[in-house]
Structure formats: C-alpha cells, structure tokens
Amino acid sequence: MAAKVPRDRIIESAAALLAEGGRDAVSTRAVCAAAGVQTPTIYRLFGDMRGLLDAVASHGFTAYLAQKSAIQDSDDPVADLRAGWDLHVGFGLAQPSLYTLIFGDARPGQEPAAALKAAELLAYRVKRIAQAGRLRVSEERAAQFVHATGKGVTLTLIATPPEQRDLGLSSMARESVLAAVTSESPPDAAGGLTNAAVSLRASLDDAAALSLAERNLLDEWLLRISKQ
C-alpha cells in the first residue's frame, strides 16, 4: 500500500486531534508531531492554520454530505427537508468539535467550503418544495430561516451537557420552521398568489420560450410578489 502524501497525513492528523481534544488541541506543534512533518510543510500546503482548519472541515464534512446526499428524493419534498434537518442536528451532536469549527466561527464573506456545500444542498431541497407549490416565502428566505434556526438549535444542544439536553427542542423548532415556510398542499385557484409566484420562479430555468433577459425580468417580478 502506497504511503499517504503529506497533505493527507496532515489533514487526518489534525482531524483526529480535533475529535479528541477540540479546537485548542489542533496546534501547529501537535499536528506536526502527529503527522511527522515540519512546520514549513503546513504553511506551504495550507497557507496558515486557518487554511488547515478549513481543509479539516471539508475532509470531515465529506462523509456527512455523502450521507445527506444519499437521502433519496421522495414524493414529499417537505418530508425530505425534515429528514435533512434531523441528519444535520445528528451530525452536530455526533461530532461537536467539527460542527463548531464549520458553523460556530462566523466570518462574513468567508464561509468554509464545507458550509457552502451544505448550503447548496439545502437550496436544492427548498427548490423542490417551491416547485411543488408548497413554499410560502421566497426560496432565499426559506433557506436562510431553515439554516439559521437549525444551526442555532444544534449549537445550543452542543453547549448543553448531554444529560441535560432536551432533544425535543430540535423537533419543536423544526416543525415551527416548516409551518412558517411551507404549506400542506399547493395553492388552489382561489388564492395562494405568493405560493404560486414562488413555485413559478423555481421553474423559470425551464422556460425555454423566454429569452434570458425576459426570464430575468420575470424573476424580478416574481421575487417581488413572493416577498409581499
């Protein structure tokens, strides 16, 4: 079996230190000792410790994303989003140090690659709800609300001693969010203008009969309606 390249050894060593001792355990000295490399190697490969931590986050998040992506689309996109929420919270409780590394250190305009991938998957789940005519608000607002609430709940549970955690908090928050942004069924002919606008906007890419400029203009109008 071929020996692992230094980059892989460094990332795996840092990930192990993070899992065992939290963020404070991932020092340059500790990583170098565990990976069998010199300090300049870390800076040559990752730029700085922030770069290494971002690489560790992406590495550790890969398995989670594979698991989350493996959720097969069902006939009920709201149920799929519910399953994704539970998986997200479960990941945070199973790997608190990694979760906090990814979601607990907000840097405006500098989201870790792992967080961006998770956002893309969430956006996909929300778009499916919109296409089904079951989204009450714009896709952007729904995704932000789900993300912000899910992250807040998960970080709160992580900060609570295991024996004191109320896991019902997650279920309560999840159902409250879903009730706020989704509906039980598509709007009927008598109403549901906002839902209809959101649904049509989610499918604009399929409107081949319109030019790009026309789709952009219609997108702007529909977004305005969906925010009313």
Q: Please tell me how large the radius of gyration is.
A: 21 Å
The mean pLDDT is 84
- State the shape: globular
Helix content: 55-70%
Largest sheet, in brief, is:
none
Class inferred from helices and paired strands: mainly alpha
Strand content: under 5%
> Would you report the number of β strands?
0
Distance between the termini: 61 Å
Order of helices and strands: HHHHHHHHHHH
Instruction: Count helical runs.
Output: 11
Q: What ranges have pLDDT less than 50 throughout 5 or more consecutive residues?
A: none
List its salient traits:
228 residues, single chain, mainly alpha, 11 helices, globular
Verbal overview:
The protein has 228 residues and is mainly α. The chain has helices at residues 6-21, 28-35, 39-46, 49-69, 77-94, 96-103, 113-131, 139-159, 168-181, 193-202, 212-226.
